[in-house]
Amino acid sequence: MQTVFSILLGLAMLATLGVMFAGMFGLARGDGNGARSNRLMRWRVILQGVSLALFVALMLVMRG
């Protein structure tokens, strides 16, 4: 079970990083598309929450 949580945590962290880079590249390009920026920000927050929840679950599995 620990391995599953570790893999899922890694995937969630990579997805968060990917969304962050997509947002940064959009800002650097000067897109000016506010709706896209808001959507990426929403996904970043959701993925960070998922990553945090998986981290807590991993710590609980390792503890017990």
Automatic annotation (TrEMBL):
The keyword Cytoplasm does not apply. Pfam families: HIG_1_N. Coiled coil: none annotated. Residues 1-64 form the HIG1 domain. Keywords: Membrane, Transmembrane, Transmembrane helix. The chain crosses the membrane at residues 6-28, 40-62. NCBIfam families: twin_helix. This is HIG1 domain-containing protein. It comes from Teichococcus rhizosphaerae.
